[in-house]
Amino acid sequence: MSDEQQGGITTVLKEDRSFPPPQEFQTRASVKSMEEYEQLWQKSIDDSETFWTEQAETLLDWDQRWETLLEWNAPFAKWFVGGKLNACHNCVDRHLLTWRKNKAAIVWEGEPGDSRVLTFSDLHREVCKFSNALKSIGVTKGQRVTIYMPMIPELAIAVLACARIGAPHSVVFGGFSSEALADRNNDAEASVMITADGGWRRGKIIPLKDNVDECLTKSPTVKNVIVYKRTGQEISMESGRDHWWHELVEEQSADCPAEPMDSEDPLFLLYTSGSTGKPKGILHTTAGYLLGATLTTRYIFDLKEEDTYWCTADVGWITGHSYIVYGPLSNGATTVMYEGAPNWPDAGRFWDVIEKYRVNILYTAPTAIRAFIKSGDQWPKKHDLTSLRLLGTVGEPINPEAWMWYHEVIGGGRCPIVDTWWQTETGSIMISPLPGATPTVPGCATRPFFGIQPQIVDKEGKEVTQGRGGFLVMAKPWPSMLRNIWGDEERFKQTYWSQVAGKYFTGDGARRDEKGYFWILGRVDDVINVSGHRLSTMEVESALVSHDDVAEAAVVGRPHEVKGEAITCFVTLEEGKQPSPELKTELSKHVVDQIGALARPEEIRFTDSLPKTRSGKIMRRLLRDVAAGRESQGDTSTLEDFTVLAQLRDGDE
Ligand code: 6R9
Questions:
Q1: Ligand 1: distance of its center to the CA of 319 in Å?
Q2: How many beta carbons lie within 10 A of that of residue 618, not counting itself?
Q3: CATH says 531-651 is which class?
Q4: Which atom of ligand 1 is nearest to the CA of 615?
Q5: In angstroms, what is the span from residue 617 Cα to ligand 1's centroid?
Q6: pLDDT over 90 for what percent of the chain?
Q7: pLDDT in tens, 574-610
Q8: What is the CATH topology of the domain spanning 117-341?
Q9: Is the pTM higher than 0.80?
Q10: How many A from CA of 175 to the centre of ligand 1?
Q11: Where does Mg(2+) bind (predicted)?
Q12: What single string gives the DSSP state of each residue in 486-512?
């Protein structure tokens, strides 16, 4: 039987550039060689009990030790059963007993250029006062709290305060509409909402409180709203329901003991949307999640005490939860938070922030990198980026050409790049290089992290042979895995555990090369079947992006009488490049040269922008509808800019 018939994916992209860890980096790294990595990884799989026990003992502070490491009644996992701890205590209080008490915990920059630094003791005081404020309006353990805020220190303070008193938080990204907020809030049934009057984005105010007012007409569970004053414009405050943050906090004591939580008590819900149906409230619990975030931050970012670390995500995404708040703070690191847009007031803003705070570690997304390439090298070149020592990427497969640009122009050729694969559901990074050990390859997430056992299987759940593409699954449970979908156990079983018996189904395609490196091929729904060959759209996109004139590309299948599906490409061009029929022909030839005739595009369309989620993922599902001339079905609440879709459709007629 052919590979395709078995549900495999034909993979076509070749990449043979490889970058060993720079010696200087390696010498100081916590894991220094592939041999060391391989040994540790093998041990973590063969004797996972000892591995996780040691990590949990070393990395976390416990109020009470657990009795059983893992109870696994597939698909339900309980980790560190019987243990008690508090995530906020681990992120804040425990550092006060060390010299870190006056170390910068959060270095914040607002979009208008204002900045603040909070030490661990500042953070402790503010979190305790706010925890008491929450209690004063009746929030108790187990009650959900919706947080809808701009990227200001109070967002982290609110998250940590919820963790401190045991109220699971549900952070909704500040860019979401009132409708999206209401949907999520209704599902979580939160009785308290924390927001701000507004937040800054591209020089304009996002009217957060107005959105909350609108949302509350559809979301009756909310009895109290706390409003932080950030932008200062006129807003309406409903007496008895709405409270100013500063007024509520003013009278609170700075003493608030952290609630000892069961390992398996919910820490937070985070909504993520699938291709169909309403958003899913992904449930994470306390001990396992915190251990995953703490451990991966330490090893994958090779954290040193003196590092200034910046993850550019929003706390409204899982990346911000794990790698702005919980992971860095639990490790006692200095974490940078930036409020606004990457290109405000100009395309040099990120590089300005790096130069200003001497950032050492930068973690960002391929979509941002491609946008920076498009605006030109002159922006980073104006800034001193020599403080950087490590770069990271997350969110999508990174096209090899974007990887090379990141490596050369931002990393000056000296910084390892960690291409980190993971999901909201996995809680923490699953597949990634270890920067002092793993030779990196552009576009490749490389090897699994300790304790993680990914496999690539066909439709029947059989492992595919090396080099073949298939479905990426996880063979073993891991501490930071999701525990459920809030209020929808059936969907949890259906979505993640019914495709391949006993294994976690990621929804992504991948292949493994001869080095054992994992290549992520994107979502399996993003596979096109051309004349019986299942091609990953990502590989065709990377071929397009490797052309000098192309900034971004999205590739989808369109129903085709003969071929089954035909390749349709949506392409945005680099600044200053013009669309033309000649360029279409040239791009088509370029794809054929890179991949082969089977990937010849049926159609290439130029567009100014692509439809993306607010976290920067291209929404190929919507492009498939455009290509097929259909109306879009399913959830579009995560679409960042609705006009993009209208433009694509207009261009159609
Ligand atoms: C952390 C995060 C998860 C999906 C995941 C995959 C894609 C994330 C990636 C990557 C290739 C990487 N993805 N990192 N694909 N290489 N390094 O992004 O979580 O928003 O839940 O998205 O993102 O398709 O399944 P989330």
A1: 10
A2: 25
A3: alpha beta
A4: 20
A5: 9
A6: 80
A7: 989 999 999 999 999 999 888 878 889 999 999 998 9
A8: Rossmann fold (3.40.50)
A9: yes
A10: 20
A11: 545, 547, 550
A12: TT-HHHHHHHHHSSSTTSEEEEEEEEE
**3-state DSSP: the chain helix, strand, coil percent, rounded to 5?**
35, 25, 40
Spell out the residues 6+ positions from residue 452 whose beta carbon is closer than 8 angstroms to its own.
430, 431, 474, 476, 478
**28: pLDDT strictly greater than 90:** yes
Confirm or reject: Cβ of 395 under 6 Å from ligand 1.
yes
Distance (Å, whole) CA 498 – CA 515 = 30
Q: What is the CA radius of gyration of the chain?
A: 24
Q: What is the ipTM, given to two decimal places? A: 1.00
Residue 101 per-residue DSSP state? G
Q: Has residue 202 got a pLDDT over 50?
A: yes
3-state secondary structure of 443: coil
DSSP state of 410: I
Domain ranges of the chain: 117-341, 531-651
Mean pLDDT of the 316-340 span: 97
Cβ of 420 less than 6 Å from ligand 1: yes
Helix residue ranges, H only, 502-600: 537-545, 581-595
Beta carbon of 396 within 6 Å of any ligand 1 atom:
yes
- Residue of higher predicted confidence among 235 and 635: 235
pLDDT at 187 over 60: yes
